[in-house]
Design goal:
CATH architecture of the largest domain: 3-Layer(aba) Sandwich
Radius of gyration: 26 Å
Number of domains: 3
Number of helices: 24
CATH class of the largest domain: Alpha Beta
Strand content: 15-25%
CATH superfamily of the largest domain: Zn peptidases
Distance between the termini: 53 Å
């Protein structure tokens, strides 16, 4: 009897929990539509299969597949065949871009002692896939045959040159050697050139990425002595995409600028090297001992120079347009086909790219298969779903940018949300994007379980997001029950959608426990991934479950799930930061009052929108779907992010239109929020900062007006 009562009580508890999950609101859905939708989501989340992810990775990451080379087309063809085998309508969309290929990459230490740098990663007998390699180089380096004394510039960021000035060291006419870290690699040669350097070497110091951090590959996950990091040094804070076609799609036979007129191709030779190759150069530097914070983990005293170490660099490239192959699958919408939900990840890599990007590309393919399986049950999405595997991301977001630029006008009319993933690993959810989607993101994260703990991925993601906050914001973040998503800078394929077209975007992935010690090296292989990252592909499966959940909700929600109170709260935090920064600048006189007033107007509009939205749950879904106001409402929501753009773009980089999120001019990937104001204040361009105040205030006021109109339209739709 006692056991029976316990079983009944347990069953009742499970039933209550299940019922609670089933009835919990989903933003954008009336209550009477939630149960059926949750059932569909649960059906979908059972489909992604870790064994399939392993299969895709082993097929796509078995050899180098660099964009512009035939091997990249092979991967695109494989993905295309898979999409078609799932039953999806898919095709290759071809573009091209100027993609230089190395002909000569010679570097020699010529004094005091001579040493010819290997500029090649050794094959590891424990990992045969490490043998077939892409040349070791930086894309969009300048050609150059130069000789000069060497100066060690720490991370080679602007602040490091201020320190060099204090030390009385000038890099003009010299070759700099910088270590990876503290900022994007492309900033290092850019700043070196601005200070008169004639060449740049970038190495991975073992303190940051090698034996100091842990055991090196193959005995551990970190970068071995002669491992090096390839990568683009295109000046992407100016614009992404083909260097010769800024703002329009690059296709064969189309308009091109001249190479010498490109704003994003570097003017000096740049080359990545290993810490094994950097050691003889750094050991022979003299001059002042570096500050403590500049010291790496190599076994000698670090000196700044200049010299007496002298280096000769000879870099030559074949400058040629090469093909890009985007794989694009489309699931047509039934009732709202002209509203698009887009999900993308890139497929090109610097070498084998098991971690970056095939872990994410494989997950996207499993999401595609899951949606295809739902189609077989008779389900059809209300909105059109587009799934894309982009080419050329590693070079400078080439494939996604050219596609976005070609379809510019149509995307601005039809694209509701762009979802991005990239390489993924084990750990916790990392989420960033448009803050109008913050509540939507948090709701979905509560319904997808962590494969290790069995708890919602929301829990650890929120804890980590709070930890990442500044001390000033930490208490408020702890009190906020929501998952605060991060603002996006650059470095992945969301950039052309969010920051050029000013479309709403999200970027998601798992990580934090996967070491990055083989990033962009010949050792980013299947064996490394299966040994040291998401070894059983359980987090790749979870990522498929999450992206599929996001897509299903966006595709089928009668009301697009935007919420603007979170946007206003986030913008107000930026205002407070900038007011403080302006107060610290003695000669600033930058007045943030217009932006603060605009944010307050948005907050009020967001509150009115939420009052109207409160009636969505009680609405009859069939009646709501028949309302003509619903289409008008969704159009207002779909285009709302575009109000935060400005057709003139940012100063000195008009390709970037978004006035709230942009990569920093001197950070590369790192975000600058309200960038014209923030960078103007930071760099002492106060007139420019005040101009940013006017531009940002106008943009936020425009969004507030559109949200107010959306609130009135929503009120009419739910009456």
């Amino acid at each position: 009897m006692r056991k029976a009562l316990l079983l009944v009580a347990g069953f009742a508890l499970l039933s209550t929990t299940f019922s609670s999950a089933q009835s919990r609101p989903i933003r954008g859905f009336p209550d009477d539509a939630i149960a059926a939708h949750r059932q569909r989501e649960e059906q979908f989340r059972k489909i992604p299969d870790s064994a399939r992810l392993k299969e895709y990775m082993e097929a796509m990451a078995g050899e180098p597949h660099v964009a512009g080379q035939p091997s990249s087309k092979n991967v695109a063809d494989y993905a295309l065949a898979k999409f078609k085998s799932f039953g999806l309508d898919a095709k290759l969309e071809e573009f091209e871009a100027m993609m230089p290929w190395p002909i000569e990459t010679t570097v020699e230490l010529i004094a005091p002692e001579k040493y010819a740098l290997r500029v090649k990663e050794p094959v590891l007998p424990e990992d045969p896939d490490s043998g077939d390699q892409t040349p070791l180089y930086n894309a969009y380096s300048g050609d150059g045959n130069v000789t000069g004394e060497v100066v060690y510039v720490n991370y080679g960021m602007p602040a490091d040159y201020e320190k060099l000035k204090e030390l009385g060291v000038d890099v003009k006419g010299r070759i700099v050697i910088a270590r990876y870290g503290a900022g994007w690699r492309g900033i290092k040669p850019k700043v070196a050139y601005e200070h008169g350097a004639i060449g740049c070497l970038i190495y991975s110091d073992p303190r940051d990425d090698g034996y100091y951090a842990g055991d090196v590959y193959p005995g551990g996950p970190y970068r071995p002595e002669f491992g090096a990091q390839r990568g683009s040094v295109m000046d992407m804070p100016i614009h992404a995409g083909d260097p010769l076609t800024p703002g329009w799609g690059s296709e064969a036979g189309g308009k091109k600028n001249r190479i010498e007129d490109s704003q994003t191709i570097l003017k000096i030779p740049v080359l990545p090297i290993s810490y094994g190759d950097a050691t003889p150069i750094l050991r022979q530097l003299k001059g002042k001992v570096v500050p403590n914070e500049w010291k790496g983990a190599l076994p000698f005293t670090y000196h700044v120079g200049p010299g007496p170490a002298q280096v000769h660099m000879n870099l030559r490239f074949e400058w040629k347009n090469r093909p890009l192959y985007n794989v694009v699958a489309r699931i047509p919408g039934t009732t709202r086909p002209d509203e698009w939900i887009i999900f993308g990840n890139h497929h090109d890599a610097w070498v084998s790219g098991a971690d970056d990007p095939i872990s994410g590309a494989s997950s996207l393919m499993e999401t595609a298969r899951g949606l295809a399986e739902l189609l077989k049950t008779g389900w059809r999405p209300s909105r059109t779903i587009i799934l894309a595997l982009w080419d050329g991301e590693e070079w400078g977001l080439l494939g996604s940018t050219e596609w976005a630029e070609k379809h510019d006008a149509e995307l601005k009319q039809k694209a509701a949300v762009y979802i991005n993933t990239d390489g993924t690993g084990k750990g916790w959810l990392n989420a960033g994007g448009s803050h109008g989607l913050q509540q939507f993101m948090g709701e979905a994260a509560k319904d997808v379980m962590d494969p290790r703990t069995g708890k919602p991925i929301f829990d650890e993601a929120r804890r980590r997001a709070v930890l990442a906050e500044t001390e000033d914001n930490k208490k408020a973040a702890e009190a906020d029950p929501s998952l605060r998503i991060a603002p996006l800078g650059s470095g992945s394929d969301f950039t052309p959608f969010l920051q050029h077209l000013t479309l709403s975007a999200l970027s998601v992935g798992f990580g934090g426990e996967s070491p990055g010690g083989v990033y962009h090296s010949a050792y980013d292989t299947i064996k490394w991934y299966q040994t040291y990252s998401d070894t059983d592909y359980s987090y790749g499966r979870t990522l498929s479950q999450l992206t599929g959940t996001l897509i299903l909700r966006l595709a089928d929600a009668p009301v697009l799930p935007f919420q603007y109170s979170d946007t206003a709260d986030t913008l107000l935090r930026y205002v407070v930061e900038l007011e403080k920064l302006a107060a610290e600048k003695k000669d600033s006189k930058v007045d943030m009052k217009p932006v603060r007033a605009a944010v307050e107007a948005l907050k009020a509009a967001g509150q009115n929108f939420e009052k109207a939205y409160a009636s969505v749950g009680k609405a009859d879904s069939q009646v709501l779907l028949a309302k003509k106001e619903l289409q008008q409402l969704n159009k207002l929501l779909l285009t709302s992010e575009q109000k935060l753009g400005n057709s003139d773009g940012l100063p000195r980089r008009d390709w970037f239109k978004h006035q709230i999120y942009a990569p920093g001019f001197y950070t590369g990937y790192g975000v600058k929020t309200m960038p014209q104001i923030r960078e103007g204040l930071e760099e002492g361009r106060f007139t420019e900062a005040q101009g940013g105040v006017r531009t940002v205030a106008a943009a936020v006021n425009a969004l507030a007006a559109q949200v107010s109109e959306a609130a009135r339209t929503l009120d009419a739709a739910v009456r």
